């Protein structure tokens, strides 16, 4: 019951072979049922009257049953290893021919991935059953197939099985034959399992290459002049494989009847002096956790999608991927070899839901239940054996979130027995007793720094403590990319860079796992937990990736690209400092251009001679000769690929540097005489509220401290109580405004307001000083807190309603994308344009978005020629939307947001950071603002 595979062949290495192969992907006959106990009446002959289904695929995404999203919880009663009677079941059948050319040998039916359990019949005979959804299951069907006749393969897949208990990853429950099914010819003398070992001795520059196989075979690598028998080892000068330069040597392993293609990468991973070292040099992971996901096909990915993932990672300066939380499709690993990504390959093992049953550890959890041991060790062995010829894999991971327990050691040992060339990782072995690297997840800056210094809290067991303290540390997950965020990537990166023990980490996670669906009106939207009628679910916690579901990069990914840039370009007094953040190779592949911009207009530009900066070194070069400028002037360098790379074309931007050369001129607004009800173009009501700006009727600006809460404000799994709770307690979402004074002076209107929530003594007192130079309208707004504030504000600024005719924005400040105080490095200062609709970022769960920070001025324009320019004496943040903050906060899908007849403009002195407390670290203390006296000086100029 704990071990569900029967009749399977021993595992063997995945490979590309010239032996016969028939892909059984495509359309299968399909019947959906509710019990795997139903009579297996479909295994003798191709059933008639059935529907059809696409293989690979999930039935829930092809009109049968429905997807279920839970993070940790089991959607079935927890009663190991039994499952409910109601058990969605997919019966699959198709005919196939055995090619006449397949003489002798064996015929194997291979399932690359079946979720979660299948029984298999060929021509009416039951040949076995499967286990481990994300690992292959092979069956010898030689004695069951009929050559020269039509054959029938019938498969019954159950959604729930014993496997489900140990496959409780944070993802959709999706079932079926979701990876390829193939029929393989295994001629006599063909190669079964085989191991290619390609070690690299960096000091000597020598590689050691050998192959082992279960039959006599020859290893041939023409480029290296290698032609040796399996079992022999050769030593020779080679170039190493790294994520930065994925040097592969193509070769073959050939027996008398089969030739296997090899992609050999020489490399050595080790822990040296407590540091993670590859090929003799320290490395740092700038990684991401990747689930296999497509919004229409779930975990059934086509090759193009896998390639898209790899290209997107490379183009965004990521260098590593943890295959959370199961072995990916083998093609993905092959792509990592080819394009260069370090990989942590993770076993298909998670039992997180037992935590909720009171068994985070102990025998109530499969990790500590001996009855599961054979199944778990077998999974580990199957992963290592399938994948150990892939150079990109540096570590094996035992699984995720299963807690500590007695089955961990045997799994780790099984890995070590099969492969001594890689390290063992497990995120839940906090004492590091069984692993080679100390790992944890979502630590805040303080705890991470302590680890960097090797000053973490000691374990009781001194020997174990010494063992762990000598290990490098990685964050297996950090910077939870749910919704708007993550903020704080820069602060994490600074710690990774400062402490050699820290070998970087893996952002959670790669893509929003939201499923394309339609609402009652037929509008498409990306659905999350609860959108598919689930009985229990975990809402939009599944939408926490760096990519939107359609693989559009989110602002978080754009920021990661900047923070992870391989070349850091900075000012060093009057020179340019170039620091390589690469671990292995120089920057000789990069070229650079510079530009000088005043008020966002290019005044000079040119190319920069980039020297090849060696890995982790610094080189300074001279600034180009620059013309004199007047006005706010910025110097920008953009480093690009000098020539085409396999993953991007020449000209692809890799790194940027930008600094300010000249400050803007300051201006004290002149004041003309004013008289009620007007101050220059502004007209006010009796309460001193702005009613119109020139011809524009406005909704009077009022003090605004609320933002549509972002996921990180909620802190689903944060370290501190959610900041949201404090905000709601203080009533910051329901502030009332009272006018206390309206004073018309000869050259100004001064209004004093008090903003406070019901049942609160805390208030913000605002002094609005309106003046004009005869052209525009100037506002000096001074906000003073009243009472003992202990809660940082979501934001401090104003909100103004404008006629809906405005359609476009042009601004000088950070852009072109959105930016927030702790996620703004990718947004360079410049002059940008966008439609108002284009300013919005469509987070799967609507929340504050689209802020453009450090804006000097923004001009809104309409198609009928109206324009409003807002400029700040100090930079400000702005958003412009066709809905209010409250409407944005109330929406549960972007399709809920319907444009109204106003454009709402928010202007901020500051805003609370993003952080990543939806799961993990709260906003860094430097990005929280307790109210203190703050002045915003803003000018409005109207035209048209
Ligand atoms: C961590 C899980 O490992 C991961 O699968 C995912 O659920 C992530 O959290 C949150 O999105 S576990 C966390 C609750 C500490």
TrEMBL record:
Belongs to the glycosyl hydrolase 2 family. Keywords: Glycosidase, Hydrolase. GO terms for cellular component: beta-galactosidase complex. It is an enzyme of class 3 (hydrolase). It catalyses: Hydrolysis of terminal non-reducing beta-D-galactose residues in beta-D-galactosides. This is Beta-galactosidase. GO terms for molecular function: beta-galactosidase activity; carbohydrate binding. InterPro entries: B-gal_small/dom_5, Bact_Beta-galactosidase, Beta-gal/glucu_dom_sf, Gal_mutarotase_sf_dom, Galactose-bd-like_sf, GH, GH-type_carb-bd, Glyco_hydro_2. Its EC number is 3.2.1.23. The lineage of its organism: Bacteria, Bacillati, Actinomycetota, Actinomycetes, Micrococcales. One of its GO terms (biological process) is lactose catabolic process. The keyword Hydrolase applies. Residues 678-943 form the Beta galactosidase small chain/ domain.
């Amino acid at each position: 019951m704990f071990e569900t595979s029967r009749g399977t062949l021993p595992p063997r290495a995945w490979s590309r072979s010239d032996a016969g192969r028939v892909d059984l992907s495509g359309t299968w006959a399909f019947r959906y049922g509710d019990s795997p106990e139903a009579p297996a009446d479909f295994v003798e002959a191709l059933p008639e009257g059935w529907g059809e289904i696409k293989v690979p695929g999930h039935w829930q995404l092809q009109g049968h049953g429905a997807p279920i999203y839970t993070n940790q919880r089991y959607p079935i009663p927890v009663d190991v290893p039994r499952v409910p009677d109601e058990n969605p079941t997919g019966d699959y059948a198709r005919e196939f021919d055995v090619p006449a050319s397949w003489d002798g040998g064996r015929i194997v039916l291979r399932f690359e991935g079946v979720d979660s359990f299948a029984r298999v019949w060929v021509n009416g005979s039951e040949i076995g059953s499967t286990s481990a959804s994300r690992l292959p299951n092979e069956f010898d069907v030689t004695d069951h197939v009929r050559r020269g006749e039509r054959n029938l393969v019938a498969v019954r897949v159950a959604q729930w099985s014993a496997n489900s208990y140990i496959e409780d990853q944070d993802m959709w429950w999706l079932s079926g034959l979701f990876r390829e099914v193939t029929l393989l010819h295994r001629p006599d003398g063909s190669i079964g399992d085989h191991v290619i070992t390609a070690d690299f001795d960096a000091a000597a520059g020598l590689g050691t290459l050998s192959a082992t196989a279960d039959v006599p075979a020859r290893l041939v690598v023409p480029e290296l002049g290698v032609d040796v028998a399996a079992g022999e080892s050769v030593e020779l000068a080679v170039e190493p494989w790294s994520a930065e330069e994925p040097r592969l040597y193509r070769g073959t392993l050939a027996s008398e009847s089969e030739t296997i293609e090899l992609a050999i990468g020489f490399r050595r991973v080790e822990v040296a002096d407590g540091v993670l070292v590859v090929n003799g040099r320290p490395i740092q992971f700038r990684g991401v956790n990747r689930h296999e996901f497509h919004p229409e096909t779930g975990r059934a990915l086509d090759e193009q999608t896998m390639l898209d993932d790899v290209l997107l990672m490379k183009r965004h300066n990521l260098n590593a991927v943890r295959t959370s939380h199961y072995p990916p499709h083998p093609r993905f690993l092959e792509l990592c070899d080819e394009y260069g990504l370090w990989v942590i390959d993770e076993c298909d093992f998670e039992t997180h839901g037992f935590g909720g049953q009171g068994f985070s550890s102990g025998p109530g959890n499969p990790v500590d239940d001996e009855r599961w041991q054979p199944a778990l060790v077998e999974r580990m062995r199957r992963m290592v054996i399938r994948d150990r010829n892939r150079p990109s894999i540096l570590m094996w991971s035992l699984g995720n979130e299963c807690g500590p327990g007695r089955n961990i050691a045997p799994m780790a040992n099984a890995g070590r027995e099969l492969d001594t060339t890689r390290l063992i990782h497990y995120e839940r072995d906090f004492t590091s007793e069984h692993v080679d690297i100390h790992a944890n997840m979502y630590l805040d800056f303080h705890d991470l720094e302590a680890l960097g210094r090797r000053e973490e809290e000691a374990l009781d067991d001194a020997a174990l403590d010494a063992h762990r303290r000598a290990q490098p540390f990685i964050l297996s997950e950090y910077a939870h990319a749910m919704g708007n965020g993550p903020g704080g990537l820069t602060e994490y990166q600074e710690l990774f860079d400062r402490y050699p023990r820290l070998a970087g980490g893996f952002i959670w996670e790669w893509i929003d796992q939201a499923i394309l669906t339609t609402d009652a009106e037929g509008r498409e939207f990306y659905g999350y937990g609860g959108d598919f009628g689930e009985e229990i679910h975990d809402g939009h916690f599944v939408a926490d990736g760096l990519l939107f579901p359609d693989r559009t990069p989110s602002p978080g990914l754009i920021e990661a690209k900047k923070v992870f840039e391989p070349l850091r370009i900075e000012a060093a007094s009057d020179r340019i400092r170039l620091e390589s953040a690469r671990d292995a190779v120089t920057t000789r592949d990069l070229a650079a251009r510079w530009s000088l911009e005043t008020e966002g207009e290019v005044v000079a530009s040119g190319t920069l001679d980039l020297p090849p900066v060696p890995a982790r070194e610094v080189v300074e070069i001279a600034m180009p000769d620059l013309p004199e400028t007047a006005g706010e002037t910025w110097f920008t360098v953009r480093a690009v690929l000098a020539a085409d790379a396999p993953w991007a074309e020449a000209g692809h931007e890799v790194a940027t540097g930008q600094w300010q050369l000249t400050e803007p001129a300051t201006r004290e607004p002149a004041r003309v005489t004013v008289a009620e009800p007007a101050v220059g173009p502004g007209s006010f009501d009796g309460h001193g509220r702005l009613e119109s700006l020139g011809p524009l009727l406005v909704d009077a600006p009022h003090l605004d401290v609320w933002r549509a809460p972002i996921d990180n404000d909620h802190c689903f799994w944060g370290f501190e109580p959610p900041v949201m709770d404090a905000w709601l307690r203080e009533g910051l979402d329901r502030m009332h405004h009272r006018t206390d004074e309206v004073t018309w002076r000869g050259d100004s209107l001064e209004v004093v307001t008090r903003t406070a929530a019901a049942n609160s003594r805390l208030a913000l007192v605002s002094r609005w000083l309106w003046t004009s130079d005869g052209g525009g309208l100037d506002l000096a707004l001074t906000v003073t807190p009243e009472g003992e504030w202990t809660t940082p504000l979501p934001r401090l600024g104003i909100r103004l309603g404008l006629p809906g005719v405005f359609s476009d924005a042009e601004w000088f400040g950070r852009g072109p994308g959105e930016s927030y105080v702790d996620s703004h490095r990718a947004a360079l200062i410049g002059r940008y344009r966008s439609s108002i609709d284009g300013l919005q970022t469509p987070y799967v769960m609507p929340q504050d978005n689209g802020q453009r920070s450090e804006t000097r001025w923004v001009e809104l324009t309409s198609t009928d020629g109206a324009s409003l320019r807002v400029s700040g004496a100090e930079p400000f943040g702005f958003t412009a939307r066709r809905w209010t903050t409250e409407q944005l906060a109330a929406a549960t899908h972007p399709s809920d947001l319907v444009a109204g007849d106003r454009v709402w403009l928010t202007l901020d002195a500051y805003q609370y950071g993003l952080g990543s407390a939806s799961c993990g670290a709260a906003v860094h203390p430097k990005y929280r603002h307790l109210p203190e006296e703050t002045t915003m000086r803003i000018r409005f100029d109207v035209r048209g």
